[in-house]
Amino acid sequence: MSKQDLPPGSARLQLADGIAVLRPETAVFEAMVTGWSHQQMARNLSAGTISAQVATIRRFQDFCEVEGPWAWTPAMADDWITELRGIHGLAHSTILSYQGALRHFMDYLLDPAYEWAQQCQDRFATHPVQIITEANSARHAHESPGDPRKRAYSTDELQDLCDTADAQVTHRFQVGAKGAMVALRTATITKVAYAWGLRRNEVRMLDLTDFGPNPRARQFGRFGVCYVRYGKPSKGSPTKRRGVLTVPETAWVIDCLEQWIDQGRPGFDQATGTALFPTERSDRISNGALSHSFSELCDTAGLTDPGLDFHSLRRSYVTLLVECGYDTRFIQEQVGHEYASTTSLYTFVSPDYRSRVVAAALRAAAGHLPERTNRT
């Protein structure tokens, strides 16, 4: 077979025949990683997915401290996962992701089409084995493995959060503190994330140009639609785009957003690009900085329940739309869920809402009952 006929990622495309190298173990490992990257690109996986997968492989190699994948064993994988869970406290979903990367990498090395097993046998007198099997891999506990404590904010909690955010802005302005604009940015991000049901990365990646009018709702002006360009991708796919329509129940956020754009954002030196939320040192706020500022806000508001986090704003948005009677398909499209069952996991309707539904059903049923006549 000529090299032109070899599949992307083949060992013979990555290693030069008959050429000795100073450190063969390092050279072969790097060739394996490069070949696997090419194989994943041929599968049309996104650059972000490939980079994350490769980073996992390098992290495991550093943990093992052995020559390379031809010396890896299932016991090493078990020890690594035990450390990640016991010491670093990684989530179940993260463990699944790491194990998946290891499994796919070993499948690639063991596939005869890529000839890596033969290369290892010829060079090191041994060959790779699959280190993630049915016996030592984490299980998908349910369709959406996550913390069951996670929930939406109640109406009172959401009000406390927004009131605290506004109070911090007012206080810092009054005392002339430097962080007034930072507090305004945190308050605006919180409200925007809730008002359009956005994920953390979706809201931080917003640009000034990511809003537009809705011809059927002209009362919202230039903020009738929020165009999300960095929606959560499916595995191996690019980010998903969607348009989130502004609903009357959260249209109050428009005044907050206009205030930020006109008065808050220009106060940052880095506000020279199009990013909606810049920082003092960069043109766009990072996920880490956003998480830190939001965590401080929650602590100040006394909202320290482990079931509440930034994503709870999105859960609250879904719950709001459900309680306001919006069609389930409309809600699914608004938040960008592929399946309606996923949207249902985000719904945390209040006891008062459930009571109203039952009362309405009883009234409707009573209306269909035949009238009782008095007997003499």
UniProtKB/TrEMBL annotation:
The keyword DNA-binding applies. GO terms for biological process: DNA integration; DNA recombination. Keywords: DNA recombination, DNA-binding. InterPro entries: CB, DNA_brk_join_enz, Integrase-like_cat_sf, Integrase_catalytic, Integrase_recombinase_N, Tyrosine_recombinase_XerCD. Residues 148-359 form the Tyr recombinase domain. One of its GO terms (molecular function) is DNA binding. Residues 27-110 form the Core-binding (CB) domain. Belongs to the 'phage' integrase family. PANTHER family: PHAGE INTEGRASE-RELATED, PROPHAGE INTEGRASE INTD-RELATED. This is Site-specific recombinase XerD.
